[in-house]
Amino acid sequence: MSIAALAQSMGITLKALFSKPVTIPYPDAPVPLKPRFHGRHVLTRHPNGLEKCIGCSLCAAACPAYAIYVEAAENDPNNPVSAGERYARVYEINMLRCIFCGLCEEACPTGAVVMGYDFEMADYRYSDFVYGKEDMLVEVEGTKPQRREAAYTGKPIKPGYTVPYLRPELEGVKLPKPPRR
Amino acid sequence: MKPFQGTGCRANKPGERGTCSPNPSPAFYKRIAAGAQFVAGMALAAESTPAADPTATDPLWMVGIKAFLVIFGLLTAFAYMTLIERRLLARIQIRQGPNRVGPDGLLQPLADAIKSIFKEDLIVTRADRVIFVLAPMISVTFALLTFGLIPFGPKDAFFGYDPWVINLDVGILYVFAVSEMAIYGIFLAGWASNSKYSLLGSLRSSASLISYELALGISLVAPVVLVGSLNLQQIVNWQYENGWLILYMLPAFAIFLLTSMAEAARTPFDLPEAEQELVGGYNTEYSSIKWALFQMAEYIHLITAAALIPTIFLGGWRMPGFMEQIPIIGGLFALPYLWMFVKIALFLFFFIWVRGTLFRLRYDQLMVFSWGRLFPLALVWFLLSAMVVAFQWPVAVLGWLSLLSLVLFSAYVILTAKPKPRAMPGVGAGD
Hey, is the C-beta of B415 within 8 angstroms of any chain A C-beta? Predict the structure, then answer.
């Protein structure tokens, strides 16, 4: 046992004492996520506002958990919803079945369904886990429980994550604001 | 009982030796014998016995109030010591520590207290019930008894009363006697639990505590011989006149620091409660508030040690002497309480720091370290300082000897240090 080594180890702990803790106090502070995190899906739009989704159901076919349900309908040529012939009249993902593998994103021919970052989806009722188009289109911020709470308290949605940058696939998604303090 | 003529035997100037007997050793042993007799007879009654302290001026009710304050303060300090220790250990491990209860976790001790009081209080069926209940009480009572000796300021600094609970002439002996008694709590706990782990833990801890008590005692005899008094206040005053004892007694200080860590069962020497090997040591079968009492005793031992070390070696409640000359803060020199608290906090931090860094010694290493290293070292240093006092050499000799021991120790450290592994050739960091 070398006394010099003991003294050295005391120095190491002293240095550690004055370093910043690595703990992320998660509910108080957002979690730093990597840009390729697999979170709640986002249904993106073209720059002209038309939905990218053409209702082809390839995502549903690729889904290993059978979590996606798509019902397509013909576009009204005068007032189209999507850029193709058809659009998804119903687009539902059951978040309880979803395993967030991202195969839907890989299968999508138009890049319509993209994995986003939201992950705080814990809720009370089974039906609240089935996310429809109104829950996943790009302009929608947060998850269902987050939006419900925001509507109840009147405060803006507080995202539980930060990302250094957004993937280009997430067209139109806004970066969450950097955490306060 | 005759009070000790404390500072008469100071050895700073040869001219002052007239008041002292040429060979102080017999007188000193007489003192020790008298002190031991006194402690054996009246250790517990000492606080309330006016004959023990002819200089006591405080009325008994005031002593009672101060005793209550000391106990209350110690228990609060214990509670927050646990929190501070957990936070600091967490920071050493780059975590945050408990910060949920109250602002920044400040109410955590309260939550812990509530939890440990309302937990189920188990008494093992085959335990010796009376001793099983008595053991933690013995532990915590004798842990609490020591602290009243520590002077926190000059006379009359506590609202016109003395800032200490008792002023015993046998001061250090009393400390030893009482802290030895705490071993009974540990041993009886292990025995009364009627469990293998408890008995093993208590045997281990009694063995280690008794071994370290030897080196502890011998290391303190040297400053006592030099000062010529066992009274803590006279030791503090001696340091005011002659400089801090750590300057003259560096090896004794180092040994006392180490052994007092062992006395409080702190990490390098925490075999009594080696959780990984012994389940919990002597307190395996204890739960709820009884277990908390053992923890309390341990932490109070720690706080007492952190108060004793500066009192004996670092000038007590006074600030460092050279700061007296600095104009603005020099006025704080004799401020009671402040410096004592600062010094206690320093040592408590040191203990936590050591706990966060070092590992537990193996049992044989522990014993070898105590009997083979600390004990002979303490003996040698005691003999040296006794020689200096007996031959009436100037006290500066001890200062030089301390310096020499420091040099020898550093040389030993440097010589035994393992050479750094060589840099790989071609990496470019070398040369």
Answer: no
**Which CATH code fits A24-162?**
3.30.70.3270
Q: Does the beta-carbon distance from A5 to B418 stay under 8 Å?
A: yes
Bigger pLDDT: A149 or B23?
A: A149
Interface probe, candidates A1, A17, A22, A24, chain B, greatest B C-beta count within 10 A: A17
pLDDT digit string, tens, across residues B158-172 = 777 777 777 778 888
A9 touches chain B (CB under 8 A): yes
Our CA-based measurement puts residue B311 at a distance from the nearest CA of chain A, in whole angstroms, of: 25
The angle that helices B108-118 and B60-92 make with each other, rounded to 10 degrees, is 110
Q: Report the first-to-last Cα separation within chain A, whole angstroms.
A: 46
Q: What would the pLDDT profile of A9-55 be if each residue is shown by its tens digit? A: 889 999 988 988 888 888 888 899 999 999 999 999 999 989 999 99
**pLDDT tens digit sequence for B168-213:** 788 888 888 888 887 888 888 888 888 888 888 888 888 888 888 8
Q: Nearest residue of A to residue B412 by CA position? A: A3
- CB–CB of B9/B20 below 8 Å? yes
Length of chain A: 181
**What six digits make up the tokens of A133?**
């188009």
Nearest CA among A130, A124, A93 for reference residue A108: A93
Cβ distance A23 to B353 less than 8 Å, yes or no, reads no
- Domain ranges, ordered by start, for chain A: 24-162
- CB–CB of A5 and B417 under 8 A? yes
**CA-based nearest residue in chain A for residue B420:** A5
Give counts: helices (H), strands (E), chain B: 15, 0
Give the residue from A52, A102, A107 showing the smallest Cα distance to A80: A52
Q: Are B192 and B285 in contact (CB under 8 A)?
A: no
The verdict on a CB contact (< 8 Å) between B95 and A21 is yes
B146 in Cβ contact with B264 (< 8 Å): no
Residues in B 334-363 with any Cβ partner in A closer than 8 A: 353-354, 356-358
- For chain A, strand residue ranges (E) read 31-32, 41-43, 68-74, 86-94, 113-115, 130-131, 161-162
State the burial class of residue A36 (Cβ atoms within 10 Å of its Cβ: 0-12, 13-18, 19+): exposed
Please write the tens of the pLDDT for every residue from B60-111: 888 888 888 888 988 998 999 999 999 999 999 999 888 888 888 899 999 9
Is the ipTM reported for this complex over the cut 0.90? no
